[in-house]
Amino acid sequence: REEWQFSIRDDNDRLSFAVHPRCVAPADHGAWELLPEGVKIDDETTLATGGGVRYVRFGHNGQVTYRLSRVTFSGRNGGSAQRCVIVSTLIGATRLGKDHRYPQDGKYCY
Length: 110
What we know:
The chain has 110 residues and is mostly beta strands.
């Protein structure tokens, strides 16, 4: 029963992500997928960090095994638009969010 990890990294101002077994180091995983150019990870992101990546881990049944969190994206060229994915329950439920005028718990993307 294997744990899985969602990893995201910023490599020369270009974001890429991978889903891989936890036992495989992110640097050793070869199937990284690029996100569109001009997208950056926003300061509201709360994913765990380590080994040059931000990540969240899931058990074999999809439950979160390390760190309920969010990843928030915004444009590199300015603007206030944000989009986020929030890992919000121990069973691995995710939901999408967008920027709001007023913060909730200090975050504008919810």
